[in-house]
Amino acid sequence: MRRRVPVSGVVWLLVGFVYFVLPLVATLIFSLQSGPHHSVSLGAYGDVIHDGQFWKTLKMSFLLALETVGVSLFLLVPTAYWVHLRLPRLRPVVEFLSILPFVVPPIILIIGLLKLYNGTVHAPLWFLEKPYTFLVSAYVILAFPYVYRSLDAGFRAIDVHTLTEASLSLGASWRTTLLRVILPNVRTAALSAAFLTLAIVMGEFTIASLSLFQTFPVYINYINQTRTYEAAALTLVSFGITWAAMLGLLVVGRTPGRREAQIGGAH
User: Fold this and answer.
1) Are 253 and 191 spatial neighbours (Cβ–Cβ below 8 Å)?
2) By residue range, what is the domain housing residue 136?
3) Mean pLDDT of 170-176
4) Confidence band (pLDDT; 50, 70, 90) for 265?
5) Do the beta carbons of residue 196 and residue 146 sit within 8 Å?
6) Beta-carbon-side half-sphere exposure of residue 254 (alpha carbons within 13 Å)
7) How far apart are CA 107 and CA 172, in angstroms?
8) Closest of 161, 155, 148, 159 to residue 183, by C-alpha
9) Which of 15, 57, 90, 207 has the highest CB neighbour number within 10 Å of its CB?
10) How many C-beta atoms surround the C-beta of residue 44 within 10 A?
């Protein structure tokens, strides 16, 4: 016997669909207008695609996102693993630290980092002048709550102690245990953290703007202030690029041939 879908559920699904899709449709219609008579044209999209700054800033933001994902996972996967395995009493402390980026606004964070590196620590110029060092350090802090909590949920869903003891008893090293036993089991959580981090970096404006770096969100803000139809077109293009990148990460993460962690695979 088939279960009937309640009418209220269908209504709320339609409301949610309209709420998310209607603004995109309105933006699309507006972006196709051009000239004094508002004729339909793809000229705004052509102007955006052929702008050299579009590709330059997009490449920078995407590389910043990938680097932030890599650094965040490199730091927090072992941290979350060790907290769940040997230091469960520190879990409330780490969870409290993961809340701080929510409490501290990005504008306060970047001003504090600039004051710290320029006044107290006197960081080298190569660190301050390169977006792939300075911005990534700020983005890792900004993404810390999302990455840690995603990984924490993944580690809660598996038996860390049993997997670790079985792997070590078969002669595997700690490195092999982490990379070939634990990490495959939290791959879904790691992908979720990567998705969130990618979305954060691709849309972050305050830190990049105050640091005087020309990233993709800064470029979008400039277009919004100087052009009209191109701004609407750029909004849709950036929306599509972000979703395409996230789907790409999802496809890569679910590549066939990779099985979940196998205790017997530890050597």
Assistant:
1) yes
2) 45-265
3) 88
4) very low
5) yes
6) 8
7) 46
8) 155
9) 207
10) 23
Find where tokens 């970047």 sit.
Answer: 110
Q: Is the dihedral of CA 210, 211, 214, 216 positive or negative?
A: negative
Contact by Cβ (8 Å): 62, 245: yes
Which residues, in sequence order, are bridge partners of residue 33?
40
Q: Which amino acid is at 265?
A: G
d(CA 109, CA 140): 12
CATH of the domain at 219: 1.10.3720.10
Q: Which residues are 39's β-sheet partners? A: 34
Report CA 178 to chain centroid distance, whole Å. Answer: 23
List beta partners, residue 34.
Answer: 39
Q: What's the angle, vertex CA 262, arms to CA 259 and CA 265, rounded to 5? A: 105
pTM of the model: 0.81
Residue 168 in this model has a pLDDT that exceeds 80: yes
Tell me if 84 is assigned to some domain.
Answer: yes
Question: What DSSP designation does 38 have?
Answer: T
Identify whether the C-beta of residue 240 lies closer than 8 Å to the C-beta of residue 41.
Answer: no
Query: What pLDDT, on a 0 to 100 scale, did the predictor assign at position 259?
Result: 46
